[in-house]
Amino acid sequence: MARQAGRHFLQIPGPSAVPDRILRAISAQTIDHRGPAFAEVGRQALSGMQSVFKTKNPVIIYPASGTGAWEAALVNTMSEGDRVLMYETGHFATMWMKMARKLGLEPEFIEGDWRGGADPERIEARLSADREHAIKAVCVVHNETSTGSVSPIAEVRRAIDAAGHPALLMVDTISGLASIDFRFDEWGVDVAVSGSQKGLMLPPGLSFNAVSETALEASRSARLRRSYWDWEDMLGPNANGYFPYTPATNLLYGLVEAVAMLHEEGLDHVFARHARHGAATRAAVRAWGLEVLCRRQGQESGVLTAAVMPDGHSADAFRATVLRHFDVSLGNGLSKVADRVFRIGHLGDFNDAMLLGTLSAIEMGLGKAGVPHRGGGVDAAMAALDGRQEAPAVS
Ligand code: PLP
Question: Which fold would CATH assign to domain 20-263?
Answer without folding.
Answer: Aspartate Aminotransferase; domain 2 (3.40.640)
